[in-house]
Amino acid sequence: MSSTDQKILIHGGSVYGEDTVYENGFIKIENGIITEIGDHSQFTPQKGYKVFPLPEGYRVVPGMIDIHIHGVNGADTMDASEEALDTMTGTLPKEGTTSFLATTMTEEAGAIEKALKSTANYISKRQNPGQSEILGIHLEGPFINPDKAGAQPLNRILKPNVSMFKKWQEISQHHIKIVTLAPELDDDFQLIRYLKANGIVASVGHSSATFDQVGDAIDAGLSHVTHLFNQMSGLHHREPGIVGASFLRKELMVELISDGIHVRPEMVQLAFNQISDERFILITDSMRAKCLKNGRYDLGGQMVTVKDGKALLNADTLAGSVLKMKDAFKNIQEFTGSDLRSAIKMTAENPAKQLNVFDRKGSLAPYKDADVVILDENNDISTTICRGKIAYNREEDTHEAH
Fold this sequence. Notes:
Blueprint: E1 7-11, E2 14-16, E3 21-22, E4 25-30, E5 33-39, E6 50-53, E7 59-62, E8 64-69, E9 71-72, E10 75-76, H1 82-91, E11 97-103, H2 109-125, E12 133-140, H3 162-171, E13 176-181, H4 190-197, E14 201-204, H5 211-220, E15 224-225, H6 241-248, E16 253-257, H7 265-275, E17 280-283, E18 295-299, E19 302-307, E20 310-314, E21 317-318, H8 325-336, H9 340-354, E22 372-375, E23 381-386, E24 389-393
Parallel strand pairs: 1-6, 2-7, 8-11, 11-12, 12-13, 13-14, 14-15, 15-16, 16-17
Antiparallel strand pairs: 1-4, 2-3, 4-5, 7-22, 9-10, 18-19, 19-20, 20-21, 22-23, 23-24
């Protein structure tokens, strides 16, 4: 099967359209775009299509969007190289991720600037159908609270700074889409106000903000929460903290690492009951060790030990994850009792809307990018199509790392 096929027809199985599930459905794809979607009864055969006939029990869902991912398969955004980004865009379709935000971390300014520049150049010159698309950059740090650094290097943390951010946004060719920061350190919320005014998502994370400080930050333009529960002020009956604000403030979209390690399954369920699939966005926050075996790996110049699915900076500090989106997708259903449609909202629709790309991503509908994932009867990835080209097909890839 050539990945250069321009016309693809998927038929059979359950097709999860934007508003309807077509139980015996079809999708037509041409020149990277979904041209038609519907029920088998509306289907008219045409010549010239590469046909995917699906067995009963298979499902067709929108490609997943990971808005917070550092690395995979030995590569990291902070490597600031074309090769690293090639590895990321080439590997991620295996887990159902058809687009993502390349995520930086707290490092010295020069290293961040190199990563911003290399990612911007990659976006403008090297994006191709048949690989996961970089939709922009998530700047995680350095504008965070040292008390909630987690695996972010303490000596590289900076106070929120509008002029520095402007410089970085220029270097990134205006590709920074989300900034994780500590609002309690942002004087008069100047950076949050600037981000809001320029259409960039301001996210609270690695922060000790109080419930009231988050409320004030929301008034200034805050609209997002970075990896709920991890490295933030927790829920207390006299101080609801960032977690309480995430539960109660409808203005906030909320990221979650649903690996069962960063947040225990019962807490995922508790949070889901409060926040619902209307506001949750599933992320991996994965590092370069994802898809690699147990061992020691670099994260922002620090050594992280990966063993049996856990990435640890030391005995007490988790350092990113090795979670795959396809597992986050399955886990959220298992942990919360939610259904497939709900998981689609949290892995495709919500992130697309938060990044303001729902006109072309995040659902299966005519005239949208053909970012399509075919799941088997166990919800495992069978095929991933990125902008109309086959990026991963399990039948042909018997060497997928497990």
